[in-house]
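Researcher: Sequence recovery benchmark, item below. Answer with residues only.
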């Protein structure tokens, strides 16, 4: 029978086993923390915020092709001139709120946009002409928004598909990250 040259005392054996158990417990705690953090990030990005890249120039000059926008999904009340992300024909799009439920939208041949009889111009550089398919003045339904792109002559918006139901609005844009070579 060989003798073990390194004989351990009872205290050393107990200490080694305790350290091994603590290492296992610490590893499990670390894994649980990482999983908890991943779940929190997933919940924030799927249920509270949305991050998307602008595709096209329908909101030019406010938003340019390639810019990143961050939207807040929990917003339920929208104000005029808010920029929102909405689903239309299976695609996420951007639009500016021009009119809300019960507002009356009027467009004429001069490119003038009226909401409830008041001319709307703001910082929009392009005229707003009516497109075929809808008669103006148009009353926006109670549970809908009338959305227009800022680049009025080159976009698809409520003039093409009508007022957008509030259920189709995914988020209110809260910040823009300019592309700058990303």
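Model:
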């Amino acid at each position: 029978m060989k003798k073990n040259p390194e004989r351990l005392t009872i205290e050393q054996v107990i200490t080694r086993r305790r350290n091994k158990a603590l290492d296992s417990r610490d590893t499990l705690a670390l894994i649980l923390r990482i999983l908890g953090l991943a779940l929190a990030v997933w919940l924030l990005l799927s249920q509270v915020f949305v991050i998307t890249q602008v595709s096209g120039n329908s909101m030019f000059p406010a938003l340019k092709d390639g810019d990143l926008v961050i939207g807040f999904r929990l917003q339920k009340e929208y104000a005029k001139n808010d920029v929102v992300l909405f689903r239309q024909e299976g695609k996420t799009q951007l639009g500016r709120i021009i009119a809300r439920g019960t507002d009356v939208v009027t467009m004429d041949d001069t490119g003038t946009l009226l909401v409830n009889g008041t001319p709307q111009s703001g910082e929009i550089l392009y005229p707003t002409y009516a497109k075929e398919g809808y008669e103006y003045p148009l009353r926006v339904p109670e549970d809908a928004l009338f959305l227009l792109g800022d680049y009025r002559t080159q976009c698809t918006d409520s003039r093409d598909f009508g007022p957008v139901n509030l259920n189709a609005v995914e988020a209110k844009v809260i910040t823009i990250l300019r592309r700058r070579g990303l």
